[in-house]
Design goal:
Layout: H1 2-28, H2 46-55, H3 62-74, H4 89-124, H5 129-142, H6 146-160, H7 172-175, H8 182-206, H9 212-237, H10 240-276, H11 280-287, H12 292-317, H13 324-329, H14 335-345, H15 348-376
Helix pairs in contact: 1-15, 4-8, 4-10, 4-12, 4-15, 5-10, 6-10, 8-9, 10-12, 11-12, 12-15, 14-15
Length: 383
């Protein structure tokens, strides 16, 4: 396994630098540059515009700019954003990325669990009326026009019913006297979610050998205890109302993305489960007299998870760049909005920074999937 991981890391490094070179060349091939934004400003003379281009390095040949960028990247410097000048690209990404990660990881995880659970039941109870209704409804939502559906959800739940805020990610009036910035609360919420996920996963693994009925009680008790601890910690910190405000703004986008994307996981799980149910070991398990629920969850569903887990990991990997449309509809200031505005104004360092982080997540996701396969399927072994 160690040798395989080392080989894959070498492949990832080579692929990453090839991606870096191609992305930079394609962005440089775009006509014009950032300094053209000032062409319509009558207060700036031609000499001043040329001075702006020279200060940003836009007067140098493309190949020279590329090699300078590679050198800066190897030193850990992604450059300075043109549109957010003089802020470094890394600072902008560290500010915006947590917002996008919170939105898309939350919706992806929720849609994964909903889709996997529903798809598993549909495959197990195939041929019933509920299967056709759920499949048609899921496919309809999966193929719906995302901006239209997002605006419909805003009109229904935010404007008409007034259950959620109409847009943005915080309420300015509440945050006017906040003791910390919104990014601090965002980062703490992400850290809390990560710690809780690791603790619950460890708890589930340690208690998996308990009897089925007792295990369910233990699992629910552990989740309840974890929730109580999190609520207590946030309440004692004094930042609870601000975290709740962010969650309130987060719920409608997450609900919209879950309704749109859960059908993909549902159909993938259903098809994978149907193929698994035809395997000989399922027939053997039934011949042994094992309960149907045990056959479904421990034998069929586990092997059916392979393509579903692959889809989940890849969805998480592209979370940084997948929010252009959604973040625009819900006015969520994340990486999607940064990518869009950077492309419009030709802020090459900012675009390259966002693409680099996306590429790193995507390439590492491939490695994670390969490792997960070895754990989920005992038939897979790497030499």
């Amino acid at each position: 396994m160690a040798r395989y991981i080392a080989q894959r890391l070498l492949q990832i490094i080579l692929t990453f630098f090839l991606f870096l070179a191609l992305s930079y060349m394609l962005l440089e091939a775009m006509p014009g540059d950032f300094s053209q934004l000032f062409l319509q400003d009558p207060k700036l003379t031609l000499a001043q515009r040329e001075a702006i281009a020279a200060s940003l390095g836009l007067n140098r040949p493309p190949h020279e700019r590329f090699f300078r960028y590679i050198g800066s990247f190897l030193r850990g410097d992604l450059g300075v954003s043109f549109q957010y000048y003089p802020r470094p690209v890394v600072d902008v990404i560290l500010e915006r990325a947590p917002r996008t990660l919170m939105l898309f990881i939350s919706s992806t995880v929720v849609s994964f669990y909903v889709g996997f659970f529903v798809g598993k039941l549909l495959a197990w109870r195939r041929g019933r009326v509920l299967e056709y209704i759920t499949t048609v409804g899921g496919v309809t939502l999966y193929t719906v026009f995302t901006p239209w559906f997002g605006l419909l959800m805003i009109w229904l739940f935010a404007f008409t019913l007034d259950w959620f805020p109409i847009g943005k990610f915080i309420t300015p009036r509440l945050w006017r006297d906040a003791p910390v910035e919104a990014n601090v609360v965002f980062n703490r919420m992400l850290l809390t979610a990560l710690v809780v996920s690791i603790v619950l996963l460890t708890w589930f693994i340690l208690t998996r050998r308990i009897d089925t009925r007792r295990r369910r009680v233990v699992h629910w008790g552990g989740m309840g205890l974890g929730l109580a601890v999190v609520v207590g910690i946030w309440g004692a910190s004094g930042l609870g109302p601000y975290a709740l405000n962010i969650l309130h703004h987060l719920m409608l986008p997450v609900l919209t993305l879950t309704l749109i994307s859960f059908a993909g996981t549902m159909l993938l799980t259903r098809n994978s489960m149907l193929e698994t149910l035809r395997e000989d070991y399922i027939t053997t398990a039934r011949a042994k007299g094992l309960p149907e629920k045990v056959i479904r969850d421990k034998h069929a569903a586990r092997n059916a998870m392979l393509p579903v887990v692959t889809s989940l990991v890849f969805s998480l990997a592209f979370a940084l760049s997948g929010g252009v449309i959604t973040e625009g509809v819900f006015s969520w200031p994340g990486m999607g909005e940064v990518l869009l505005t950077s492309a419009v104004v030709q802020d090459i360092p900012m675009m390259m920074g966002a693409l680099i982080f996306t590429a790193i997540f995507a390439l590492l996701a491939h490695l994670v999937v390969d490792i997960l396969y070895a754990f989920l399927d005992p038939r897979i072994r790497y030499g």
